[in-house]
Amino acid sequence: MASRLPTILRLPALRIMSARAVTSGNPGDGVGKGGGAGGAVREAGGAFGKMEVAKEEQYFRQLQKEQMEKLKDLLEDEVSHHERQIRQHQDAIEHHKKKISRLNKKTDGSDSD
């Protein structure tokens, strides 16, 4: 389960970083102006190219937000699971302590050396 966590968080960040690292101008400026090779709309540049970049950024921010919520839920589930296990172990410890005290009482009362 822990091995899945880095993969969940890593994918959108890599996409965003790699897209930004490739461009040398403003995203959505068009081919030859630093914003090309991002698809037909982005290659054309202008207002539509910039709007497409804004939509992509919004998509990745939303995706990252959803992944963070899933991670938070997963961690909360793990915490509650471990708290349940702690309670079960504490109950088992008390049970065993009672058995030990009963055994001690039996051996103390019948031993007449």
Describe the overall structure.
It is a single chain. With 113 residues, the chain is mostly helical. It has three helices and no strands. α1 packs antiparallel against α3 (46-110). The longest helix is centred in the last third of the chain and has 65 residues, at 46-110. The protein is rod-shaped and about 95 Å long. Residues 13-19 have low confidence and may be disordered.
Main beta-sheet annotation: none
Can you count the helices?
3
Strand content: under 5%
Low-confidence stretches: 13-19
Tell me, briefly, the overall form. Answer: rod-shaped
Q: Care to count the β-strands?
A: 0
Helix % is: over 70%
Following the backbone from N to C, one meets helices and strands in this order, namely HHH
Task: Tag the structure with descriptive keywords.
79% helix, mainly alpha, 113 residues, 0% strand, rod-shaped
Provide a quick synopsis of the model.
With 113 residues, this protein is mainly alpha-helical. The chain has three helices and no strands.
Write the layout of secondary structure elements.
Layout: H1 4-22, H2 40-44, H3 46-110
Helix pairs in contact: 1-3
